[in-house]
């Protein structure tokens, strides 16, 4: 269990032992994570049910509960409800197969700003990306702010949530998907790379970029050439640049007329 990071909004909170217990039992509302005051017997069944459903459980101080739910009616348990349910990675890959298209995925390593995630969702949907994968921890989830900024794209873009992004990349590589990380220090420029096959693009968060362990698992690293004084683009801008280069290449390949031998 880890401390609460405080990224979620009060309007998306479900609190109180009975309310949270019933929401977990019904399984209708997409719960992002659970914040509990203690790990004793009082919270045992709620914590156990959350873990069975692979919902992250976090331990937080009393001050965090009082800040999120003024008035003390939280009873030491708060559920953070997402704006949309997540899907399994296999469902995203199956969707690509059903459309008879090479998989086209986006992986976000630690994007914490909901405005950035919303903008990325909108761009990815416009680019025809089959799905997005985000980490369970240290990253913003599908909140109402994300939904609003996405301008409706959240309803059309499947999003998977991985407990371990490195393992997610390993699974994609086993499925025959080439994984490219977008990294300012990379030697190869993104336009010099064939982006027409089964593809997953990895982009890092606002501060640290792609973490070393995730970067190491990428098949290759690409960079966007920067002509000014800043070293990198905002994450949503970087995603736009690389995804639509892939769109350009894929459209050109699809529209190419075979020549006679």
UniProtKB/TrEMBL annotation:
All copies of domain RNA 2-O ribose methyltransferase substrate binding, residue ranges: 13-87
Family: Belongs to the class IV-like SAM-binding methyltransferase superfamily. RNA methyltransferase TrmH family.
Catalytic EC class: transferase
Stated name of the protein: Putative TrmH family tRNA/rRNA methyltransferase YacO
UniProt xrefs under Pfam families: SpoU_methylase, SpoU_sub_bind
Cellular-component GO terms for this entry: cytosol
UniProt cross-references to InterPro entries, sorted A to Z: Alpha/beta_knot_MTases, Ribosomal_eL30-like_sf, rRNA_MeTrfase_TrmH, SpoU_MeTrfase, SpoU_subst-bd, tRNA_m1G_MTases_N
GO biological process, one term: RNA processing
Listed GO MF terms: RNA binding; RNA methyltransferase activity
Protein EC: 2.1.1.-
PANTHER family: 23S RRNA (GUANOSINE-2'-O-)-METHYLTRANSFERASE RLMB
Alphabetically ordered keywords of this record: Methyltransferase, Transferase
Organism: Nitrospira japonica
Coiled coil: none
């Amino acid at each position: 269990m880890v401390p609460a990071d405080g990224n979620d909004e009060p309007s998306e909170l479900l609190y109180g032992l009975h309310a949270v217990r019933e929401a977990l039992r019904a399984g209708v509302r997409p719960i992002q994570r659970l914040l509990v005051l203690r790990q004793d017997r009082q919270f045992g069944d709620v914590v156990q049910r959350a873990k069975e459903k692979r919902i992250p459980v976090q331990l937080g101080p009393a001050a965090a509960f009082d800040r999120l739910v003024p008035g003390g009616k939280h009873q030491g348990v708060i559920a953070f409800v997402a704006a949309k349910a997540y899907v399994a990675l296999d469902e995203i890959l199956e969707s690509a197969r059903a459309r008879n298209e090479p998989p086209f995925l986006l992986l976000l390593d630690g994007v914490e700003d909901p405005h950035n995630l919303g903008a990325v969702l909108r761009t990815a949907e416009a680019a025809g990306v089959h799905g997005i994968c985000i980490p369970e921890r240290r990253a913003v989830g599908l909140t109402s702010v994300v939904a609003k900024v996405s301008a409706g794209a959240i309803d059309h873009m499947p999003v998977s949530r991985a407990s371990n992004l490195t393992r997610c990349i390993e699974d994609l590589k086993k499925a025959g998907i080439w994984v490219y990380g977008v990294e300012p220090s990379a030697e190869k420029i993104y336009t010099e790379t064939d982006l027409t096959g089964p593809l997953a693009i990895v982009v890092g968060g606002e501060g640290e970029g792609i973490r070393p362990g995730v970067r190491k698992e990428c098949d290759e690293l690409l960079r966007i050439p920067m002509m000014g004084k800043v070293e990198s683009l905002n994450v949503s801008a970087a995603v736009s640049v690389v995804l639509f280069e892939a769109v350009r290449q894929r459209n050109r390949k699809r529209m190419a007329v075979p020549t006679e031998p």
